[in-house]
Each structure stands twice: as C-alpha cells, then as structure tokens.
Amino acid sequence: MSNQEKQSWLRWFKGLEPEQAEAEFVEWEKLKARKRELQLLVDKVEGVNVATAKQYLRNAEQKLDYKRNYRIAVIGESGAGKSTLINAILGRNLLPTETGDSVTGTEVRISSYEGIDLSSEKVKLSFETGDSFFIELINSISLSSTGNKLLEKDTSAEAAIGIIESATFENSNKTADWIIQRLPEELLDIARTWEAINQSNYNIRKEYGIDEREELDSLLKESSARNDLNSRERVIPAIAYAEYRLAGDNREEKESISLEHVEIIDTPGINATTLRHYEILLKVVRSKPDAVVLVVRADRPGAKAIEMAHLLENMLLSDFDASEKSDFARKVFLVVNRADQLLSGQGNRDALDKAIKRICDIISKDYWDIYTRGMEDNKRYFEAMSLLSFLASQKINNHSLSEEEENIYESQVKLFGSKDADKLPDWFNEKSEIPALVKKINAFLSKERVGLMLREAKEYLSLAERYVETVCLEKLKQYGITEVDSAEEEEERQIQIRCKRFLNRDQEELERLIKSLKKDIEQWIHSKEHKSEVSKQLNVIFSKLEKELEKVISEYLNGSLQDNTQAFPELPVVEEYYYFIGGKSGTDGVPSKLLRKVEWKFHEIVEKESKHIAEYYTSYFSSLITKREVNKQLKGKSYEQDYVEKLFEGSLSPTQELRRKQIEFFADYESICRWNLMYELVKMPILADFKKSEASPLASSVKEAMSTLIPIFGLAVTEAISKTATAPWSVFLDAIKEILERQIPKSPEEKASEDKEVTKIADLFSSLEDSFINSGNKLTIDNDSLSMSILSAEELIPEIGQLINNREFDKISVVVKQQFILRYGLAIGTALTFLERLFQYEFGKYCIAFESVSQRLIEQHISFVNAGNIDIRKKLLKKHSIEQGEIKKIIGYLRSLEAIRTQTLDSSFAETS
Ligand SMILES: Nc1nc2c(ncn2[C@@H]2O[C@H](COP(=O)(O)OP(=O)(O)OP(=O)(O)O)[C@@H](O)[C@H]2O)c(=O)[nH]1
Ligand SMILES: [Mg+2]
To answer: Could you tell me the distance, in angstroms and rounded to a whole number, from the CA of residue 98 to the centre of ligand 1?
Structure first.
C-alpha cells in the first residue's frame, strides 16, 4: 500500500530531485498518520464541541491530498487582461474579453479533466441561494447609520473598506460614502435578480455547452446587454460562479502551453463599479488558493495597482505572521501585462517600476529582491503580452482571426519589426513571456508546492490539536479541574480533591436552594393575593369581635351578663388595672365584671382566629418546603447517614434538625400572630349602641367603662408583647407610653395621686424597654408606616381624654365611633405589616438554621473524606458517576492527544538522529 502510494507520489512529483521527493514523501506519510489519529480522536469526542477542529482537519486533509487540482487565482485591475491571459495560457478563446471596465462579472473556474472529450466540454453555473441573500440583507440592515464599523458586517463592504483604506492613501474616488450609498442599491439589485430567476421569469439553464459562446458571454459578462442595470433579464448578480469543465490534455508530449492538474480562477477586476466584484474577489482570495497570479497593467500602473496590493495586504495578509507571509509570497506570480504598450510608448517605465516596487514591498519584505530581481530559479515576475500570445497561439493552431484581431496582430508585427512570417507566431509566443510564466507555475506546483503544502497541512493539524486541547481543558475547568495530573500515584489525592469538589458543589446547591426559598417568600409576601387574603381574615376577626362585644355589652345592660370568666383563669392585666382605674370610678364591681367578660371574649376570639392566620402563613411555608423538596435535597447530600447523625447534636439527622426548626418556627409564629392581633385589635375601641339606654343611670357608667377600654387594653397588650419579646419595638413603645400617659383620665381628686400613677406607668415602660433592648433582636421594622399609624391615632386620643375629663358622654359616643373607623383601618394595615415582618423574621431564623445545618453536614463529610472514609467516597463518586465519567473521558482525550504528539515528536527525533 505504502509502496504503491510512494510510486504514485514519485510519479506525481517527477519534477523533484528523487531524494527530496522521498524525504517529502516520508513527511507526508507522517502527517497523514497524524491526521488519521487526530481524526479518530476527534470523531469519538463527546461532550465538547470540536466542530472547529474538524474543520481544521478537513483543511489539512485537503492540503494533504496532493492529487487534487491546484487552484490558481488570477486577480488584478479590470482591463489588465486577466481573461485574455487565461485564454492565452489555454490557447483557446474561452473567456469573454473586451476593452473597457468590468467585463468578467463573476468568479469563473476552469479545470481540465482527463477522460472528458472535446464534445462533452461544458460550463456549469452555480446560482446564489435565497439564504445567502437573506444573510446579506440582514447584515446590511444597520447601514442607514454611519461609520465604517457597521459596514464591516458585510463582506463586500469589508472588501471595499480595504480598498478605501488604501485608496484614501492614493486619492482614489472610492469613499466610505460611496459604499454606503451603493450597498442598499446593490442588495436590492441582487434580491430582484434572484427573485426574477426564482420565479422562472426567464429561462436560464444550469449547464451550457462550451460552444454556446454567445449565450455564455451574455450571461457572464458584466458588460453584456442582458446584464445591463435596466435589463429585464439581468442575471449576473445571481450567479455565484461558473465552472468550465474542459477536456484534459492526454498527449504525452504536450506541444502547446498547458498547466497540469490545476483549476484556474478568473475573477472580476478590481475596479468597483460594483461592490459585488470586491466580494467575489474577497471570497476567492479567502479560499486560500494554491497560487495567485497578480496582474498589473503596464499602460496605467498607478493607483489601481497599489489599490490591488493594498487589497492583498488588508484582506489576505492581515492575519498572517511573518513566516506565513513569506510562504504566501512564494505563491504570488506578478505579471505586468500589456507589456507591448510599453514598447509602443503607451506606458511609462518609471511609473511602472515605482508601482511594482511598492506592490512587491506589500507582498513581502524581500519579494523585490528575491522574486523580481533575484535568481532565475526564483523568478516570479513577468512582463507579459497576453493578447499577442493569444493571437499567436490562434495562428499556430490555424484558427482564423477576426478582422479586428488581424489588425491588432498586424500592428504588433510592425511594432516588433519584420521577421520571417512563418516563424513569427512562435517567436511572438516566446516573446510574450506566457510560456515562461506557465513553466514557472508548473515548476512551482511540482516542486515548491510540496513543501508548502506539507507546511500548511502541518499547521492545520497543530491548529486542530490546540483546539481540541483548549476546549477539553475548558470543559475540565467547568468541572473545577485546573490541572490534569497524569501520574498514577496521584490517584489517591485526585479522588480526595474530586470528592471535596463534589461536596463543595453540594453546598453550593444547598445555598442556591435557600436563596430561591428566600426569593419565593419575598415574592409571596409582596403579592396581592397574600395581602388581600390576610386582610380578609383580619376583617373576619374584627367583625366577630365587634359582634361578640356588642352582645356582652347588651347583656351587661339588661343585667343578664354571666361572669364565667373563671374558665379563663389568666386575666392578670384586667385585674390589676381594674383596681387602678375602676376602683376609683365609684361603680365598684360593675366594670370589673364587664371588663373581665370583655377581655375574656377578646382572648377567646383572638386565640381561635389568630390560629387561622398563622395557619395560612405556615401552610404556605410548608407547601414551599415541599415544592422545593428541601428535606429531600438535604437528605440527598447525606452520603453516610449513620456517621453524620452521630455527629449532629442530640443525635438528630440534618433533616430532623431542620424539621424541628420548622416546627419551632410555626409555634413561634402562631404565638406571634396571637399577640400581634391582640395588640392591634385593642387599639380599636368597641362600637356599641348606646342610644337606647341613654336615660339609664347604668348607661353612663357603661360609657365611662367603655372609654377606659382603650387605655386598659393598650396596657394589656404592651404587657403581653413584652412576654413575647421578639422585636425591638422601642419606637412604638415610646409612642404608646406617651399616648397612655396623656389618656388616663384625671379628675380633680385624682390630681393628688397623679405623680404616683405617672411613676407607675413610667416604671412599667422602662422595664418593658429594657426587656426589648436586652432581647437584642435585629429585626428591622418599617418605622415609617408604624409611626404614621401611631401618630394619626394619637391625634384623636387627647380629645377623648378631654371629653372624659368633662364628663361629656354624648360626644364620647361620636368620637368613639370615629375612633373605631380610623383604628379599624389602621389595625388591619399595621397587623398585616407586623405579620409579614414577623413571618420574615421567623423565616430568617429558619434560613440561618438551614445554613448552619447544611454547613455542618458538608464539613462533616469533608472531614470524613480527609480521614479516608471509603464508604463516603464510594457513595460520593457513585452519585456523581456521570460527571465522573465525563471527566474521565475528557482526560482520556487529552492523553490521546498527548500520545499523538509524542509519537510525532519521537518520529521527528528519529529522523534527526
Ligand atoms: N495591447 C494589449 N492589449 C491587451 C493585452 N491583453 C489584453 N488586452 C486587451 O485589454 C482589454 C481587456 O482585457 P480583458 O482580458 O478583458 O481584461 P480583464 O482583466 O479580464 O478585465 P475584467 O474582466 O474587466 O476584469 C481587451 O481589449 C484585451 O484585448 C495585451 O497584452 N496587450
Ligand atoms: Mg476578465
């Protein structure tokens, strides 16, 4: 196999010295092998995207395919004679040529194929697709704004910018404005053409016979009548490229000029009446042809030639490094065409030399010295006469010339003086330098191309390797691995590291879980649904309370009130304050009974109803815990339940501990709800219908008693709250204290004992404050809404105090009603706020517990792992086996890559030693 291959190689490169051919064959085989190994690796890679590496390998494959057609791109200014040059090289009148700008309208590929006979030679057309137009259109949408940046999106614009950059330098007429103006028009032109073709408005085939010359010319010439901008049959913008498939030259001894195994690419000239031409040119240049023939016209060697050189520099060489540039320089053949015009005095030698020197400098630092002025072997510079060569070849082959062609030929004959007419065509041909150019290109293709090809292939292979390596390492980084230890003794440490990484990730997952819980709660608390539901429930309590108290009062008024409050033994507050206020009212015993009953009812209702509210909150929380699978998650992170449980306090597992926290949370919250509601509700005086019993002497004492409900219950609640001690409510404590101080009725007889009472209240409050401050809670309360509600309530309270002082009971009823309405609203709002805050506070405590439980859990695991606990490790690795597998795979890829590299290195060592 290898031998066969070698024979084929040697036959193919018969122009090379045998030793060189063999050495290069060895190198080629090595690269082939490397490519094969890399391909195997890349094909089996999973989990990382190696598409780019695959592309590199395809490129390498292409470079290594020495038997493929070599691609020679002919580029240059319009009218330089590119098409004529190709016709001359082929010795055939194939491509349309013409005086004037922009003749060749698209990319034209010409290749010869052994086995095709002259009769089956044909031209195939490839059309642009709707997709490619669409992309172009999208890319140019932003064109209405200004600046070059936006143009860069469009390739034709990008090409044009390159021209402009060089043109600005050379005072060209192409400006950025020109491009901005052109592009939309041209896109429209393309779109219209494509649409017309797509709708089969006119007949175009995909294939033409080589002799359908007229039809082909009309299709492929930018300057044909059919392709006129106003033509209804305009077609050229839709043709992506044309392919001439010619019969191969099978003769052993070739008489005419010929290129073996090549595809010659004719391009539209750099002239830019249309951006499309730049785009086509760019596409060709970017496709990295194996050789480039750069055609400069002798008669006008000025700005255009420089533009072209800059195009090369900007579009082709810009991302080349020095060695790539010098590789590229070897591929460039510089042809000054129409050299006959120098002789006839139409050109300017000095200007030409200057232009050529500059172009050379752009191509490469040493192009001028090596390829233009250097040794014959390296020669890449030709002053050619394509037209003359073409005409001569026609004569040689006995093809008749047109009258115009005859005239030109005659004028050339005059130019060169008389010669033997028979030998003239051959002499002209030789003189035209075209045979020399072809010979050089052939030599390049058979000799230097090999080395170049191998170097390029090698470069693509390393690119592929580097790419695979980079993406693998990146992937490993995602798994938290920053270095790939290959030594086997590292295994132990590796496992430890990996286990710890899993554990850290577990912890991160738990942290994320708690974060999402927090977010859920936050959202829920602020949701309309929640607020309206709680308000509704609060309303229910308020109305129940109102109704019950009305009942108690009316029972009291008609004397049927039963004091069964013994069933509710803990009513210490009323007892105490009854003596404080009721004892001095002169209606001994009566308020006591009423107040005891009222307070009892109050406790009863709030006790019952607050449970519902608490349940509403806690059941939401429970459902959240279930939804987020908190316990399951936590359990999933306990890899060794027994060990972990033992190490946890009170032998509770993390989940048990957390559940206990949850139960505590709920219990706390229930009592908070109760006390919160107690406080809020007693701020609300009770509305009773006093009118009916206005005349009754009892009524006045009832009124009096009712009016005292406010301060008494106020005190009762503050006292109650002090027991819960859950919040630093010093702000509102101060406010309540002040309200109550001003509110306690002060009759003249009472004045005497005033000091005593004030002291009593002040004492109570300072001890309350102390207990709050000492409790050290960090809960932040929305002080604004709190003090607002207290302030508005406060405004009305002095009024009541005054009325009570003056014994104006009628008015009291009105004020109490007002108070009721005001406080009713306030109570709901404040209660809601408090409930929310307290819920969040309790939830916060739960979160802290969660964090500490999970932290301890992970810490325990880490210490087990450190201590070499096999069980936990096993379980950890098992749980993460998929990831484990991924990592193993990727490390495997990297090792294979390393192996491929070492092999290559080894063999090159072998080679040098
Ligand atoms: N005097 C002279 N004229 C030439 C020579 N080569 C080509 N021409 C003429 O220059 C004109 C342009 O030639 P083309 O081959 O169409 O030029 P091109 O570079 O393909 O032009 P585009 O397709 O527009 O890019 C034609 O009229 C040719 O006959 C030459 O060596 N000497
Ligand atoms: Mg042309």
So the answer is: 6
